[in-house]
Amino acid sequence: EAWNPKWRYSALLNFRTQFTEGLDGNGNRFSDLMAPGYLMTALGLNYKPNDNFNVFISPATAKFTFVGDDDFAALGLYGVEGGEVERDDEGNPLREDDGSLANIITKGENSRTEVGGYLNAAYNTKLMENVNFLTKIDLFSNYENPTYIDVNWDALIGMKVNDYINVSLGTTVLYDHDIKIQDEDGKVGPRTQFRQIFGVGFAYAL
């Protein structure tokens, strides 16, 4: 429903996870299918002044984090309440040869619910006749700790080389205060994560 051509009441339902496992430098799994998985539901307002720009604002958003892997849950990864695992003298979790935890003493929680404010904005434009630019950002602030803002920002440039080949170059910036990462110095805490994407597509119409 719209009271203004540029503003509309809107609802959002978003789910994301990955389909393959992620491994750290030691070959240990740190992510997998539904570990984590994120579900977000929101009610708010959508502002679209033109075909290039769109923003959704919600003061009432529920964010659900699922960690379906008991090893990850026991370690308290991705913000869920962790359990207790057997560790060595240096405090590192004991692991089997396949990288799984050797002994989970008490299980961790497999899900977490947060309520807060949410903003989603997207902008796309044609830089050149054969080059397009798209960027979008998600910001979520948990009302329990409103100063810690989760960030998911994507930027993508797509170029049509010819009738058959397309090239894309993108980057993603991620920050979640609840995700603790160990750096090369052994310090553990929230970190800004970066991901780069380069793709080449080929299409041929019969």
Note the topology:
Blueprint: E1 7-16, E2 22-23, E3 29-31, E4 37-47, E5 53-66, H1 70-74, E6 84-85, E7 104-106, E8 111-128, E9 131-142, E10 149-160, E11 165-175, E12 180-182, E13 188-190, E14 193-202
Antiparallel strand pairs: 1-4, 2-3, 4-5, 5-8, 6-7, 8-9, 9-10, 10-11, 11-14, 12-13
Describe what you observe in this structure.
With 206 residues, the protein is mainly β. It has one domain (7-202). 2% of the residues lie in helices and 55% in strands. The chain contains one helix and 14 strands; from the N terminus they run E-E-E-E-E-H-E-E-E-E-E-E-E-E-E. The protein has one helix spanning 70-74, and strands spanning 7-16, 22-23, 29-31, 37-47, 53-66, 84-85, 104-106, 111-128, 131-142, 149-160, 165-175, 180-182, 188-190, 193-202. The strands form four sheets. An eight-stranded antiparallel β-sheet has the order 1-4-5-8-9-10-11-14, with no helix packed on it. A two-stranded antiparallel ribbon has the order 2-3. Strand 2 (22-23) and strand 3 form a beta hairpin. The longest helix is centred in the middle third of the chain and has 5 residues, at 70-74. The chain starts with 6 loop residues before the first strand and ends with a strand. The model has no long low-confidence stretch (mean pLDDT 91).
